[in-house]
Design goal:
2 helices; single chain; 71 residues
Amino acid sequence: MDEVFILYGKETKGLPEWLLEKYLNTKTIRIPMLPTLRSLNLSNSVAIITYEILRQQKFEDLQETSTYFDK
């Protein structure tokens, strides 16, 4: 499994411009948004990206049901 490093910017500003300029074309992804929206809530962004990472890895090593209450 490849390592994945995720960096999120501030809800109000996003990531620093220098970082985007350095990596934008090679190592970044963007969450599509309607042009009328200013930003997504950070927790929603984390959920979207986490799901997409897991989906691309075919949800390997995930439990089908939780064992949280079995203890």
